[in-house]
Structure formats: structure tokens, C-alpha cells
Amino acid sequence: MPVSLPTALRRSAAALFTGLALAAAAQDGPHRQQVPGYYHQAIGSTLRVTALFDGVVPLPRAQIKGLGAAQVDALLKRRYVPESPQGLQTSINAYLVQVEGRRVLVDAGTADCFGPGLGQVAANLKAAGFRPEDVDDVLLTHAHPDHLCGVLGADGARAFPNATLWLDDAELAYWEGPEAEPRTPQALRFIVGLARRALAPYQAAGRLRTFRPGDALPGGVRALASPGHTPGHTSYLIGAGDGQQLLVWGDVVHYHVVQFARPAASYEPDVDRAQAVASRRRLLAQAAREGWWVAGAHLPFPGLGHVRPEGQGYAWVPAEFSPLPPGRP
Ligand SMILES: [Zn+2]
Fold it and tell me: What is the CATH number of the domain that holds 176?
């Protein structure tokens, strides 16, 4: 039976998990409404990725760990990140990848879990010209509500009726097992229930599949283990032809101004911060060395670009707005 989420819980989800949701400009009439939140990027000779905007949340400076406040302030001072009393503006993005004739959605946004102003993935998918029925697979980076809640429709049923949901074996075991609640801080324990609620209708329909790092996934996708933020956190590497590859990472970077330059800085809610730092260092080094395209769930929308070495750390190089080349996907 679908479980509906009471309004009060939705509000507390937004307030407790990532801070208060910012008000939606969409409520203010046509002259205040932002353009639709999608962006297409052609990569290599065979791949197209469409970034889908879900909304923004404020992440507090105080949740940056492993770096002194003065160093954090110095990094932030010259980057002009929008900031409210609740924290630094942080985007939530999902990505629809068209590859090998399949439509693969990586993460699905917040749906109703974070309250007003968020949950825009479904509308932006439609605005980009896709129907929910068109999605063949949903690859989840991990089972937190800002990535997972969007697999449910407003009625609690599967939002993507023809899709198979894919989740790392260890990630599923963690959220279904007895350790999920005790390892989650008391104030955040409701996210365990949110994960189970979102997965349930796919499990009941036989459309939840698990994998281990290195397993072959649909569309020639390779799963790269990147644990730490959660135990089974996974990033996805996808071949694009012409020697190009796209890495879609989930929560490898939360504070782009801080964590590219200083990868040892971590995010307080990471389940295992040392492991998260090691995963971030490894993926940043690989992405910079190999020249991979990167798509990041919490990078400024559309969150597409490259990583380059800079000083003792790295820098983010956002993609340049480009037309789609004619005659190819
Ligand atoms: Zn996240």
C-alpha cells in the first residue's frame, strides 16, 4: 500500500536533512518564473546527456569538516556563491543519458520529500521532451531522499512504470538492514523510512535489481564504487565514442568551491568521512587525468564539465553553452 507523506514530515525532511527549501519563483507569476531546468549536452559520437534541475537547498558552512573556518571563508570569499542565513545554495540535479538506444536516468530528485520549490525533475523531464514511460532504467547513486524520492509518483506508485531500478548491493543491504537506523543521527532517521518507501513498489513489481562494482549494466555503463557518503555509494562511467567518457557522480562533492580545491574537506552527514575523502580524491584524480566529462548531482546546474588539476587540488571547469550538433544523438 502506498504510504503518503504528511505535510509536517515533508517540512521536517527539508529542514532537517539539508536545510530549509528556498521558495519557488514559479509561484510568483510568469515574469518571475525561471526558464525550464533542462540542458542537453552531446558527448563523443554516441551519447547525449540531459541535465534535469530539481531545485536548490542551502547547506550550512558549519557542516564542512576537516578544514578550518578561516580557510573555508577564504575559499568562499572570491567565488560569490549565493548564500542565505540557512546556508550556501546547492543544486540538486538528475541526468537522463541516451546511450546505445536506451534512456537511462541517473538519480531522480526529491519529488515530495523536501517540500515546495523542489521536486522539479518530473516537470523538467517532460519539458525536455521525454515521458516517464520512456525511461528504461534508473541508476541510483545511493538511497538518500534527494536522489531517490523522485522514483515515486504523487500517488505513491512507480513514476517510471517501464523502468528497472538499479542499486548497489551493499547500498540496498545497508538501508534494509538493522544498522541503517542506529548509524543515522536521530534527527535524520526518518530518511531510512523514506528510502524503504521509495523502493517498495519496484521491489513488489520485480523491478529492483542490485549489482556489484564491476558488473555490466544496461547501456554499457560501468559502476565505480565510491563509498563513504553512504556505504554503497556508486558513480557511473559511460562510454560516449570517440574516446570520450562521461562520469556521473552522485554525492562526491557537496561544496564545489571548497572540495575541488581541498578534497580532504568533508561533509558532516557522510556516513564514513575518511572513506568519502578517499573516494573523492580517487575520482577527481581519474577524471582530471583521463579528461572525462563529469556530471555532478550537487554541482551548480547543469553540473556538466571537466576537472583540472590546480595547485595542490583541483578546479571545476563548467561546460560551455553549446548547440546540439546536427545528425547525431
Ligand atoms: Zn545528495
Answer: 3.60.15.10
